[in-house]
Amino acid sequence: MVSQNVHLFNDTIANNIAYARNEVYTREQIEEAARMAYAMDFIEKMDNGLDTVIGENGVLLSGGQRQRIAIARALLRDSPVLILDEATSALDTESERAIQSALDELQKNRTSLVIAHRLSTIEKADEIIVVEDGYIAERGDHATLLAKNGAYAQLHRLQFGQ
């Protein structure tokens, strides 16, 4: 699960990423997961790289950096079911675009449940369910929902100015 509320430990970045694994892992696997999550760019700038202790709940990291660690953790875990709960909410638009390809790769060949307000993170979904006031308002893929010109299409126009 990749959540908007990332839980990190007062430990190294490597150990926070590796926390996801039930079995033995290699340093190379951790580095690859961090690279795929576009986290190595900021990790390599830190004094101790992957061995940097990040403080209780990752206090030394920005919100976007914390989410990249959570994405790396999910990549390393390689679970058959993936839940993304506002996984890019703390990222700026440029970072989100970079990470979206990692998330696309992460979602391949697995069941994914994506909870999002940013439509850019769900446009490629097989099925989108629009919930309003606790009820299902619309259901379909991106193109179908745009064609319906309902709640999804309105939100799309607001976010993309079309």
From TrEMBL:
Which residues does UniProt call coiled coil?
none
Question: A Gene Ontology MF term for this entry?
Answer: ATP hydrolysis activity
Q: Where is the ABC transporter domain?
A: 1-158
Provide this UniProt record's keywords sorted from A to Z: ATP-binding, Hydrolase, Nucleotide-binding
Superkingdom classification of source: Bacteria
Give yes or no: UniProt keyword Hydrolase: yes
Tell me which Pfam families the record gives.
ABC_tran
- Identify the EC number(s): 3.6.3.-
Stated name of the protein: Lipid A export ATP-binding/permease protein MsbA
**Which organism is this entry from?**
Hafnia alvei
